[in-house]
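Memo to structure team: turn this sequence into structure tokens by end of day. - J.P.
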Amino acid sequence: MMNRGITAMIELDMVTGSEGGVETITRLQEALYSKSGIPHWGLEFDNLSGNHNLLQKMYPNLEKWIKVYQQLNSKGTFNNKTTSRLGFSKLNFKT
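Reply from structure team:
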């Protein structure tokens, strides 16, 4: 996420279960997306969807990455909740 040059990071610490914690992070993420901010994938809180316009803005090489991902993931080994939500997972079931 730091491959685009000079980067500023925001660390927001809080105790798990803090009242309003998830809402605060969600609002911050949404505000940062509008300013070309990039989320930490491990702390993304399921706000992003398969909106490839937004993802393409965040990651200019997204289409290249998706092609490599699909080649390396031909059996669905790396599919998970996040890759499915973002539209990267392609499951091919044999009947």
